[in-house]
Amino acid sequence: MYVVLVYDISGLGNGQKILGKVFKICKKYLTHIQNSVFEGEITEGQIVKLKSELNKLIRKNIDSVIIFKSRNEKWLDKEFWGKKDDALSNFF
Amino acid sequence: MYVVLVYDISGLGNGQKILGKVFKICKKYLTHIQNSVFEGEITEGQIVKLKSELNKLIRKNIDSVIIFKSRNEKWLDKEFWGKKDDALSNFF
Fold first, then answer.
1. What UniProt keywords are attached to this protein's entry (chains A, B) (predicted)?
2. What DSSP element (H or E) covers B78?
C-alpha cells in the first residue's frame, strides 16, 4: 500500500521535542519529501505500528496527523511545483 | 479529479506575505484540512489556473508545492490521527 502522511504538531508546551520525535518515527517507515510530509510503500502491519508509536506522542486535541492511503501508487500522480526536496533524487 | 496539495513556503525574505497569498489562492480551489494541506475535487482546467497563479508567487529554489492527483477520490482512503481540523465538519 502506498501512503502520504502529513502532520501538524503544535508548538505549544514541548511541541518542538514532540516534532523531532514524530519526524524520526516517520523516517523509520516512510520517505521525507517536504517539511512535514512523508510518503512511501508500507504494509498494513507497519501502519498499525506507526500509528501506535505516533499516538503515544501526539496530543489529540492540538496535534494532527493525516494519512492518505492508496492501494496502488499508480493511482496517484505526483507533481512538484518549485523546489524538489533533494532527498527525492533517488526517486527520479 | 481528486487532489491533495501540500506546500512548504520558506520564511526567508517576504515569505510570510507569500504564504498568506498562497493560502488564499489554494482556498479558492480546494478545502483547507491541515496547516499547509489542501484537498478536493478539481478539474484539469482549474489545476492549470491554480498552478499558474501559484507559480507567479513561489520562489522556485526555496519554496515547494506538491500536488497528488487521483482520478477518483475512492482510490484514496483518509485517516485522521489526533485533531481533525474543524473546517472538515462539512465532510463527515
1. Endonuclease, Hydrolase, Nuclease
2. strand B77-82
